User: Which sequence fits this backbone?
């Protein structure tokens, strides 16, 4: 079979090569069912991964298949889980296909983006992509709030330890050193040291030091 489709009606469009991909998770499993279905679909070539789990990021056969695809070509799989690790992986890959002019066909559920009906799938895909992004953001916020309730500090670790801040606060308050000189000794900007005072609830010394920021050590 040459793997090329014809121009159909009802908004269908001419397609390029049909390239198949098949995968089984263990050496003991067989590709026969998938290869038979992909052959009947007219695939010009089938890329394969054997003994590769669904969660694996490195899939040599799939990587070769994706590299071989050209605009107008169609990636054909038996089911979604043969090619994609997760919903996010599927959405990201199909979005890239759309940008590259590559189509996708999933045989088990008869999803074919070379047809007008199948192209509607891309719109559904976009909705699911937005849902996935929204859920990811929601999970992130929920996780951060839970961490705060446990007393965890969110964000980058502070540049200065509480002990360093307290020691410099005492020295600045006692007139031994200026804010600028104290910050220089700690290797930070004076504003960073001032924020450290505020974070630790230390008032007075930082403000006093700021007035003497331009002076030298006392």
Assistant:
């Amino acid at each position: 079979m040459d793997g090329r489709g014809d121009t159909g009606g009802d908004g269908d469009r001419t397609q390029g090569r049909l390239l198949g991909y098949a995968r089984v998770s263990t050496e003991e499993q067989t590709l026969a069912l998938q290869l038979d279905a992909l052959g009947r679909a007219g695939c010009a070539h089938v890329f394969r991964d054997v003994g590769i789990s669904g969660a694996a990021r490195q899939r040599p056969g799939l990587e070769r298949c994706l590299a071989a695809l050209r605009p107008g070509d169609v990636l054909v799989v038996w089911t979604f889980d043969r090619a994609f690790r997760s919903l996010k992986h599927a959405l990201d890959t199909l979005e890239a296909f759309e940008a590259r002019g590559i189509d996708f066909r999933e045989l088990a559920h008869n999803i074919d983006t070379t047809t007008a009906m199948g192209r509607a799938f891309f719109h559904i895909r976009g909705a699911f992509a937005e849902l996935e992004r929204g859920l990811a953001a929601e999970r992130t916020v929920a996780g951060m709030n839970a961490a705060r309730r446990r007393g965890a500090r969110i964000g980058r670790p502070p540049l200065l330890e509480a002990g360093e801040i307290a020691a410099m606060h005492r020295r600045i308050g006692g007139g031994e050193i200026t804010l600028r000189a104290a910050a220089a000794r700690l290797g930070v900007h004076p504003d960073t040291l001032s924020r450290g005072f505020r974070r630790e609830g230390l008032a007075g010394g930082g403000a006093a030091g700021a007035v003497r920021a331009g002076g030298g050590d006392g």
The two ends are 88 Å apart (CA to CA). The CA atoms of residues 15 and 72 lie 5 Å apart. The first strand starts at residue 18 and ends at 24.
